[in-house]
Structure formats: C-alpha cells, structure tokens
Amino acid sequence: MEEEMINNEEQIKQEATDNTEETNQQQTENGAESTEKAEKAETTIEVDPLEAAQAEIAELKKQMLYKIAEFDNYRKRVIKEKADLIMNGGEKVLTAILPVMDDMERALEQMQKAENVQAVVEGVQLIQKKFMGILEKQGVKPIETKDADFDVELHEAIAQFPAPSEDLKNKVVDCTLKGYKLNEKVIRHAQVVVGI
Length: 196
Hints:
Layout: H1 2-46, H2 49-88, H3 91-113, H4 117-137, E1 140-142, E2 155-161, E3 172-177, E4 180-182, E5 185-188, E6 190-195
Helix pairs in contact: 3-4
C-alpha cells in the first residue's frame, strides 16, 4: 500500500512537473511573441517621418527620371519614323510608275524607226491609259469639267467667255488644264474658261 501511495505521489509530482514545463513553455512563447511585438512597435516608432518622406521622394524622383527617359526615347523614335516616312513615302508610287517610264523609252525608240504614225499614236495612248490606271490605284482621279457648273472648290477660272446660250451661264465652257483629286482632296484645280 505504501508503495502505491509513493507511486501515486511520484505520478502527481511528474504531472505537476509536466504542467509546469508546459506553462513555462507557453509563457516563453508568449514572451517571445510579446518581445517581437514590442520590437516591431519600437521599429515603427523609431522610423523618422522625415526620413520616410525623403525615401519616398527619392523613389518618386527615380520613377520620374525613368518616365522622362522613356518618353524621350519614344519621341526620338517617332521623329525618326516620320523622317523615314517623309524620305521614303513616295517609294510605293514611284515603283508603280517605273514601268510607265520603261514604256515611254520603248515608244521613243519606236518613234525613231516608225513609218506608221497611227501605230505610234496608239502606243502612246496605251501608255497614257496605263499611267492613269496606276494613278487611280493610288487614289488620284481627274476632276470632271465637261458641262459642269463652275465651282471655286474644284475649278480655277482663267478666263470668262460670253455664253452662247442661257444654259451655259456660270458653267465651264472649256478646260485648259485638267485638275486632279487625291482621295477627294483637290491637289490641282482645273483651269477653266467660264461662261458669263
């Protein structure tokens, strides 16, 4: 019986020791957490608002310099692209016109040898038709003047002529130089004689 009591006492002491160790461990953990919280609080308290503001200003200056450099590079690239476009913008049109130039050279050679003038005339007409086809593909169209009302937006009056009839008053009587539009924008006014 005594042995049983001694065992019970030892068991109780052991449980008390275990409980004490658990409590100490919890207190140590809680203490460590409290210490960390206190250190964080001290860290946040120790940060000087002036230093924080200066750090933020430095970061913003750095970002601004990057943006300025990025914009400057963009501006230079756009200027270069515009210059290239201006320098080589007509390349497409000129490439399309070169075959007409070849035809003109052949026509001139044939004119030197030709005995049949009508064949030469037909050849030149074909070249002119080909050239107009190329211009139309580029958006160039002639301004119609035949029996048209005089329009200052399209026509340039170089002379006035007494109209032979009432219906020809303020109308185009004759065209001395064809006018052209590029995509509905007048690039050359037609020079006309107007009936008055």
